[in-house]
Amino acid sequence: MTSERLEGVTSDQISQALFERAGAVIPGGVNSPVRAFGAVGGTPRFIASARGPYLTDADGNEYVDLICSWGPMILGHAHPAVVEAVQRAAALGTSYGTPTEGEVTLAEEIVARTPVEQVRLVSSGTEATMSAIRLARGFTGRPKIVKFSGCYHGHSDGLLAAAGSGVATFGLPDSPGVTGAATADTLVLGYNDLAAVEEVFAEQGDQIACVITEACPANMGIVPPLDDFNLRLKAICAQYGALLIMDEVLTGFRVSRSGWYGIDGVAGDLCTFGKVMGGGLPAAAFGGRAEIMSRLAPAGPVYQAGTLSGNPLATAAGLATLRGATDEVYARIDGAAATVAELASDALTKEGVEHRLQVAGNLFSIFFAPGKVRDFDGAQQQDTRRYAAFFHAALDRGVYLPPSAYEAWFLSAAHDDAALGRIAEALPHAARAAAEAE
Ligand SMILES: *Cc1c(COP(=O)(O)O)cnc(C)c1O
């Protein structure tokens, strides 16, 4: 890893050539849409390697990484303990299709840190939320679910729903290919709107299996729950016999050792996890009280399965990551995140750019909008063209921000003074570009 100053990004020719090759054989050239830079324009960088807080692209440019694989790389890239755990596991065989000790140890670690009593391991956050909803429906015997607009829970059909007109109407498909039938039992409400939740339960409470919410929304930018929102959701669910699913795929083991639960203390009846718990390999989980989880096959009748669930490499990477994620690590990340948030906000203020910093533990995002953002409608008021200019000016100076104004910024324990220094040098240029953008 070099620590001398980066001279700026000199060329993206190889990335351009790779993006062209990719476009011929992969739709849009990427395997997950946000990677394509659609929201900010330009050529996505093809990353060849990463270490600590740095990414190196195919053209040899180095960037301070403020995405951290969208959360998982909490210890930094290629952390020696994680690399060693994966290498050791790989040498023992990559998959058996049988139970292994590593799955038990990882499940014990998750149970020790969170309110859940039992967990089922899966391979992606999408699978975790999809399975948790099936279990909630199987447990309650009810069809409907409540979700909030702007909360992302992966790409399963029933969760790709947009709000219909009026609070008590069914959800509408949010993507071609999702049928009206798949979203008809999904009720979509505005985030932080307790009156709407109360209204929908008063009308249809005996039909509602669960409410699913991001424990602290981070997929429309950071929009924390107001005051006692989560607590009230839990009380309303309890009153009507519905389950509360706390989606902690992003916040789990990131904003604290116990995720957002470690900050606001509201336990979901079911919780979903992913990202950090896989340490950069595909691992995710859903869990809850034993009384609910025991309804899952083979203990109970609700079917759920996976060929690679609890994969030995993924459990080894996840366990090494969680074991490395000590109180000291969280304190470091909290400090680094506060520093970067302040640097960014100060730089924008200095250039007179209207913006709003929103923080959730060590996660934050910047809305190019004037006031406090409390729901998805508010998030959509921002000036995304300013963000695109801000993003590209930072990228040109070797700082890799999320390529969308609707994403959180992620720090790791590896973001040391050298990395923070590079960010401090780049941000004033980015702020100027934002100010000059029309
Ligand atoms: C990332 C994310 C998911 C989906 O996880 P994948 O592993 O991408 O399928 C679900 N919920 C939340 C809150 C997320 O941030």
From TrEMBL:
Residues found modified as N6-(pyridoxal phosphate)lysine: K275
Highest taxon, organism lineage: Bacteria
Pathway listed: Porphyrin-containing compound metabolism; protoporphyrin-IX biosynthesis; 5-aminolevulinate from L-glutamyl-tRNA(Glu): step 2/2
Keyword set, alphabetical order: Cytoplasm, Isomerase, Porphyrin biosynthesis, Pyridoxal phosphate
Catalysed reaction equations from the record: (S)-4-amino-5-oxopentanoate = 5-aminolevulinate
Compartment annotation: Cytoplasm
Short name of one Pfam family: Aminotran_3
GO cellular component: cytoplasm
Cofactor(s) needed by this chain: pyridoxal 5'-phosphate
GO terms, molecular function: glutamate-1-semialdehyde 2,1-aminomutase activity; pyridoxal phosphate binding; transaminase activity
GO biological process, one term: protoporphyrinogen IX biosynthetic process
EC nos: 5.4.3.8
PANTHER family: GLUTAMATE-1-SEMIALDEHYDE 2,1-AMINOMUTASE (PTHR43713), GLUTAMATE-1-SEMIALDEHYDE 2,1-AMINOMUTASE 1, CHLOROPLASTIC-RELATED (PTHR43713:SF3)
Similarity-based family: Belongs to the class-III pyridoxal-phosphate-dependent aminotransferase family. HemL subfamily.
Subunit structure: Homodimer.
HAMAP family: HemL_aminotrans_3 (MF_00375)
UniProt-recorded name of the protein: Glutamate-1-semialdehyde 2,1-aminomutase
Protein source organism: Actinoallomurus bryophytorum
